[in-house]
What we know:
Elements: E1 2-3, H1 14-21, E2 27-28, H2 36-53, H3 61-77, H4 88-103
Parallel strand pairs: 1-2
Helix pairs in contact: 2-3
Amino acid sequence: MHLIPDNYGTHKTALIRRWLLKRPRFHVHFTPTSASWLNLVERWFALLTQRELRRGVHPSVQALKAAIRYDITVTNQQPTPFRWTKTADEILASVARFCQRTSETGH
Length: 107
């Protein structure tokens, strides 16, 4: 099994290292937190949370697992790709505005 953590420091603590040593089938891969594909994975989990977790009532872990599997099955019957809604120029302009705001705070 592969884990893809996005917060490097947390996964390097002694507690986590011991946990991983006891479970050699897990391999940790570190990726940049701003990796675009990782953002899409996080968006998929957000959609799953909206559809199944926040609105659902699950009397057991088994019921929760069944609801998640059902959501995946239904979603896969008519899959649609995630699409970027902004152009590269819009994204860069947003980053520039953020940098401008944060650099003016005097910190």
